[in-house]
Amino acid sequence: MTAQDKAVQALERAGEMMRLCLADPSDFRADLAARTFAHDARRATRPEPRHDRPGPVIRTRGQAASC
Question: Which segments carry the region annotation Disordered (predicted)?
Fold first, then answer.
């Protein structure tokens, strides 16, 4: 299964959970599931982190403010 397939599945699950959440706003489990699946979809669409960079990561002031 490719990363794109995982992202599509996670987005579909997030949409389904969002519909459940909107149908019953007091159901915290549907809200949590929708947030979790949306997070999974975002992670699936991003490239894997690269941990092979040697040395410290140097950030500029603009980047440090957004971290």
Answer: 39-67
